Amino acid sequence: MTAHLKKAELHCHIEGAAPPALALVQARKYNVDVSGIIEDGAYVWADFSHFLKCYDAVAELFRSEEDYALLAEAYLTELALAGTVYSEIIVSPDHGNTIGIGSDAYLRGLSAGIEAAKAKTGIEGRMIITLIRHMGPEAAERTALYAAKRQHGLVTGLNLAGEERMHNVADFARAFDIARDAGLGLTIHAGEMAGAFSVRDALDHVRPSRISHGVRAIEDADLVKRIADEGVVLETCPGSNVSLQVFPDFASHPLRALHQAGCRVTLNSDDPPFFHTSLQQEYEIASQVMGFSDDEINGMTRTAIEAAFVDEATRRRLL
Ligand code: ADE
Ligand code: ZN
């Protein structure tokens, strides 16, 4: 059992954390038909591309600053109840533009939710702005320039999510340079829907301190050694990977092998209700299904806090 263990998370997409019950409330509020994406109280999607569409449809049910404040507060409060002291939520100001409230209102709402959860429970939250790969490099650079203004104090990093099989990582190098120059932490989705080459490209062109997923590095032993030697932190999300059929089951998931090879790994939920998981459940899977000891799991939590995009005073307090 892992209920008693301290937890920390580096990787959860905030719109992907909306439970179907909340999405239904939002759908009623805005009079939207969600019968195509929610059935019997669960999200329905068939494959990764379909999942991304379902994700966007859920994101469009949150349409105001207040909606986003409540979403962040609810998610972080639930995490805190499960023993979580720190969470980085992946946010997409582009969604703010899609729903018409704009990036600033979107981030103000999320910031208010993070502060409210902290006031209630003590949990620390930060935001990682994500570029959306299938929107292309030009849109990515615009978003990176926006992130680099650093107008919202809880934004501390930049990520790249979306369809990994589109574009080359090199196409996004300038966007990441902009963020690096602004002092933001860098992480990038790689080695999830594409193979080891994608992780290698991410390391070569972006030089991030963390990789979102990165698990398909296991296809290349030299790359695994490089990740271990360079101390790059992997934000692994086993429940997501099995749900999206990146690996057929937990027995064939490479978390144990990566850990054994000396890679710095962490546990994360990605888009929890879409993948029928939660951060607590990821800790349970690591313990009960993959056989990690409490000491090993505490090591992963420590790694997450060490790799967090957070100021040093907060990091010391969390450790
Ligand atoms: N956006 C939301 N969830 C994602 C995932 N697992 N991979 C890439 N982009 C995403
Ligand atoms: Zn993700």
From TrEMBL:
Cofactor: Zn(2+)
Coiled coil: none
CDD domains per UniProt: ADA
Transmembrane segments: none
Enzyme superclass (EC): hydrolase
Family the entry assigns: Belongs to the metallo-dependent hydrolases superfamily. Adenosine and AMP deaminases family. Adenine deaminase type 2 subfamily.
Protein name per UniProt: Adenine deaminase
